[in-house]
Design goal:
The complex is a heterodimer. By secondary structure, chain A is mainly alpha-helical. Chain A has 11 helices and 5 strands, in the order ααααααααββββααβα. The mean pLDDT of chain A is about 85. Chain B contains 11 helices and 15 strands. In chain B, the strands form 3 sheets. Chain B has a 6-stranded mixed sheet with strand order 7-8-9-5-10-11, with helices on both faces. The N terminus and C terminus of chain B are likely disordered. Classes of the chains: A mainly alpha, B alpha/beta.
Chain lengths: ~325, ~325
Amino acid sequence: MTWLVWRQHRAQFYVGAAVLAALAVLLLVTGLQMASQWHSDLVACTATHSCHDQGGLFLGNRAIGFLVIMTLGAPVLVGLFWGAPLVAAELETGTSQFVWMQSVTRARWLAVKAGWMLLAAAVWGGIISALVTWWSGPNNALYLNGFNPGRFDIMGIVPVAYSVFAMALGIAAGALLHRTLPAMAVTLAGFIAARAVIALYLRPHYMTAVTAFYKLTGGGYTPPGSYWQLAQGVVGPNGQVLPQPNGAYADGVPMSYLPHSCAPLNGGATKVPPSCAQALAHFRGFITYQPADRYWTFQGIETGIFVALAAALIAITAVVLLRRDA
Amino acid sequence: MTPIRPVPGPRDPQVGSLGAAAPRGAGCGSGPAAIQTSGLSKRYRAVSALTDCTITVPEGRITALIGPNGAGKTTLLRLFAGLAAPTAGELTVNGTAPRQDPAFLADIGFLAQEIPLYRRLSAADHIEAGAHLNPRWDGASVRERLTALHVPLDRAVGKLSGGQRAQVALALILAKEPRLLLLDEPVAALDPLARRNFLATLADAVAASGLTVVMSSHLVADLERVCDHIIMLASSRVQLCGDIEELLAEHQILVGPRKDITAIQRSHAVVQVTRTPRQVTLLVRGKGPVADPAFQASDVSLEELVLAYMGQDAPPALARLTTVGDGQ
């Protein structure tokens, strides 16, 4: 069975390997350049005591940076082009009737075929993620944004899980729909939907977020490391979160909540009039965030969710293929 | 000539009494059976593809599965192969119910009508695949057979002609060395020469290994030369089933002046009546002499027989054909 899987998919394998090789060369070359630039800039800024002001440091090629962001879509590619046709194309062309009438049970056929494909998907996601994670090292250190949506999703172990999920989704869609093209469409839509729903609505709640309060006059508060900020704002005298209307603000507090004596603050004055200082003392800033040290826990939870979804999809595929008439 | 008009033979008590020589459900073959079904039915949602099918496929022989398009031939073959599960009834193939089991699958060769092969793979690739997928595999015989037929082994199967593809598929199935070969309309897409080659290959293989073959077609002429047993389906039901020679021996054609046929109906089961202004032609079951000297008897051809039964709407209770007094 493995021989047939290899014979059927070796062309796809070569294409996939070529894409990965090209990406590797591109990222290795630019990544090494960037790492040495980062290193020399660090040396330079340490010498001049200006490392706090590295925000303007230009890192890497813009096109490559864009390509790296685009690896967000890499997992779904295996689902579309390898997963969706895996069962659907065999049902569509009737070759399932050839292979299912050899001395191989359908269960084993599916297990071997899907097994190799899921492994290939994991390798695909793993290699891309390893490259991107390594390449983004200096960037993460500089901007401390590795936990942010969009960057969390292309690094660490989650791309492996996304790829496995996309593959399983493609296989299941093909087994249910019996046709490659609709299966591809469902795979694309399903992948985007699942990723969006989980990233937007589930991921912020994997663990209870931490909320820190700070004095508005104290220059604000920044949690350490690559934290993930979920919300930021101002609470009023009674602890209520203030809506943030359009209009003028003084030290982050809407002017409409403050006495007129604070007006100069809005104008850029640094000296706070006493009456205004008194009023401001009733307000506190807050930041709700997931601390940086939860990064790998979150990676683990998200990976677990997508691997579980993939397992469920493969189980559905098995039930459909084994129960239904061939 | 007036159109063929079926007479209500199936409901005729005489047919019933004739059929009653054997209990209904005993099948329609003698000797060891490769396949036995009892009340086998298959429904696809509201559509009944096969209804109450009770038949026997004798071992070591070539059985023709005849019927118009949509009669249920493919359904029946897919049930035999285990590619579909019956809705009702029982089915034994090679001594067991069809199941997902390597040993069961190894004994079955199934060739679907579309001749499914991987279009981008070559015959050689398929041979190699078969070697990996089957416990018994005679790859050398496939190469030999295809080389003799001048089928290129290294060309993508999708680029071969329809006849060559059918030969590749048949050779691959024979390489599996099955005990039972199920072929769904294997010659439908072939030109007469390719058809002859295909059937010759098949006949050789059967002669050499003694395997059982069930082969479907909507044309009798396709299969008549190589088959010795027949199952006829129409409207999802078995209309006729039995040994071809016995069936031919049991039926005769009577031609006589156009007049009342009730006397003949009393002694023979009338399967079909064809009337012209001058004469009436009857296809009757039962070889006994006709009392009325005005009628002339002649032998029936398989094609005539099949066409007569195909015209029937209801099943003519022919679960088993036994010559009266044959002692079984």
